[in-house]
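user: can you give me the structure for this one chain? tokens are fine.
assistant: on it. calling the predictor now.
[tool input]
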Amino acid sequence: MPLSRFVNEQLARFEDFLSDPDALLLEVRSLPEQRVLVTKLLLGIAQRADALFGGVDLESSEAATTCAAMEAALLDLAEQAQAVFDEDGCAFAGPRPDPTLTDEPETRVAVLGERLAREVQPVLDGVVLVLGVHFEGDVSPLATTLVRIATALESGRFKIVLIADRDRPVLASLALPRPRRAVPTSAELGEVASLVDRLSKNPLARVLVCDVDSARQASFAEAMTRAAAGRLPAVHVHGVRFWSPVHFYGRCLEQIVPWCERAVARAGNAASLKELRARVEHPLGSDDAEILFMRTLEEVVEAWQGDGGRLLVVLTPDLSAPDLRVDELDELLGSIERLNRAAVTPRIRVVIAGPGLSAERHSRTPQIRIHDVVVDGPVIQSGIEERLRETDLPLIERLRLTSALSSCEIATGDPERGLELGLEALALAQRTESPEEVAIAHFALGSGLYQCMALAEAASAYTSCLEIALDRGNLPLAAQALTGIGNCRFVCGDDDAAIEAYTVARTYFSRSGNAVGQAYVVTWLGEAYARKGDLARAEGLFGYALRLYDRAGDGAEHGKAEVLQRLARVQERLGRHDAAAQSVAKARATGACAPVADQP
């Protein structure tokens, strides 16, 4: 598959996730060395999509730390959204974190993300938070945290993308419970007090849909409001026909807002709902009537009761009219699904009761998805070949791609073709008239010959590279060439020649400030001395290689684990068994301990 087609397919999969309202959480798995590709794909999506993108580097799997980092990122996105709205001359009310909302940090993250995603519409189409795993150790607490957040999500406007290593996955593809919308059984409907208890205590239960026959609608609603007394204010709206979402929710608000005004007056509260009442009495048409309904309820409660306010709304629509349309019930059920997505805060609870309101329409597709992004050899190779077929390709780019294709052919089992391409790359380098390009081409050819175990020819190519690099004063390239020469001599069994090459390479790496390169040649210098029987010197060199890897910092764990295993072998030969056991234990604690190679 050509690389361009591969990239387009990955972009299409990302876009499918972003456009699906039921998809909430995506884990993108890749090889560590290909994480840059995943990042570039996401950047491409961010440029093409209208959503608001943000990123979080997770330094711990602890729930409170993870949620705090996500809240901080969402607040940063709110500031970015404010700038976008200011530029467009639009009003924007950025959401604030509310620690009194619930004791569950995961639910607070979900509420903040969904409210931000709702407020940025229609200028921006939702919010996407990209999480990167940057810690070692157990990832299961992170998985638990993310599943809890996804369970608290519903709108599909706020989505989470997790970037993880393919060999260290965090999540599993699954369909989550949908606790926000509850459909009680007929037996549960007789226990109104327990239903109200569920609504008042569970921060995820926000919309209760009850199949109640027309004759019992009014008494059921009265029982609900009675049971809510002392827990949360409750208002009942009865008998509104569902002609359309705009009509239905507008008529409901026409009764709810005046009721709240009377409650404000009874409480002696100075808060004024006149502006909201005027807006409700003269509504503007909206395609998102459910969102407007929930947002207006939030405004009413905040103006009336402040940040900690709560409200139970019981709706008993007229579903028994003689002229009831065939599709009226279906349309109401579809609207309830949208209302459920719009219920982003647990401060507002809605009960809708009527005959036939029992259909479950929840999607059965997994809300958590897994997406592997791995660029394997055939993908890379076909992508390179596709570019090389372009007739107007610049010379330097043709050189780079030809050299890369040479390496691919050798790695995938066609060394003859690979070496032909290596010679072709050398000819292209000579056409550039750049000594550095020629030296690099000699080095690449030497690497190909070394992989084919043509050691004399490889050493000759490395030597040509070394001569040009020294002539140009390019110490980093000279160090690499000497390392290649040392490897050829080591495999041939010429330990003295290998030691000579590695020693000079070590000096050049040191002068270039390349601690990892220096640690590598010091490691093989130690192996050469060990094979000669100078175990004390080998032990000292392995100890020095460890210090160099320590100096290199992050990303050197694999190198340290390998050196510790080599050190343990030497310590065993010296009879220092306790020291060897300690070195093996350190290696296991440092990283994965694959068997070490006997040749470079």
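assistant: here you go. The chain has a mean pLDDT of 85. The chain is about 60% helix and 10% strand.
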